[in-house]
Amino acid sequence: MELFFYNTIQQPALAEFKDRGSKFLAYSFPVTSIEACKKHLALLKKEHPKAVHHCLAYRIGVDGSTFRVSDDGEPSGSAGRPILGQIDSKQLTNILVVVVRYFGGTLLGVPGLINAYKTATSLALQLAPIIQKPVEVEYVLSFDYQKMNEVMLLVKQYNCSVVEQTAQLFIELKIGVPKNRLEEVINKVADMQGVLFKSTLAI
After folding, report:
1. Which residue in 1, 35, 89, 95 is deepest, having the highest Cβ count within 10 Å?
2. Last residue within a domain, chosen from 98, 132, 166
3. 122 and 139 share one domain
4. DSSP secondary structure string, 93-137?
């Protein structure tokens, strides 16, 4: 089945869950790379140096094929998996959830931990607005300055996103074209005089 849209969160969110003295702080972030996940985790470790665990799960890519779970010292399968389970139950991708735990002196046992990490994540995801984004295909447009308005009109009309722009003798514009509008955009650009259009995969 061809994928034209995916669900992610619009902005970060934070939720708190307490159980028998232990405090679980769930942070959710919209991300598009593993590097971004590492940065968020490093910042949270700085922010919460006294926390005993920083457990996480992320899913990245429009098809959600890149993912990771970490129990960070909690019993195997008691933290990262329940976090990912909540992400998957909402069919989200390009998202990271880190749950920071402050130990309250009472052991919760594996079922208690699974419930705590699951609940904290669920609360954070309830607070993060979920948005649907189009799957995009990247293309590069090369054209003369006089064509700028015509090209930008096309970009706007078909809800393309501007990824990068460089200007030398010609303008080079890297755009993300929604997959479900790709054929229309290719036909439209073919009708334009003096505009070169190539897929970034072919570069």
Report:
1. 95
2. 132
3. no
4. -SEEEEEEEE--SS--HHHHHHHHHHHHHHHHHHHSPEEEEE-EE
Q: In angstroms, rounded to a whole number, what is the distance separating the alpha carbons of residues 141 and 138?
A: 10
Q: Residue written as tokens 């890149």?
A: 66
Calpha distance 125→16 (Å, rounded): 12
Closest by Cα among 183, 13, 179 to 99: 13
Whether 95 and 184 share a structural domain: no
Residue 88 lies in domain: 5-132
Chain mean position to CA 84: 14
Instruction: List Cβ neighbours of 202 (8 Å cut-off, separation of 6 or more).
Output: none
Q: Is 39 in a helix, a strand, or coil?
A: helix
What type of residue sits at position 97? V
**DSSP letter string, 142-165:** EE-GGGHHHHHHHHHHTT-EEEEE
pLDDT digits (tens, 9 = 90+) for 134-177: 999 999 999 999 999 999 999 999 999 999 999 888 899 999 99
**Integer Cα distance of 99 and 91 in angstroms:** 19
**Model-level pTM?**
0.86
Could you count the other beta carbons within 10 Å of the beta carbon of residue 152?
A: 13
Q: What angle do CA 193, 179, 134 make, to 5 degrees?
A: 120
How far is residue 88 from each of residues 65, 110, 163, measured CA to CA in Å? 12, 21, 28
DSSP code for 92: B
Distance CA 59, CA 67 (A): 4
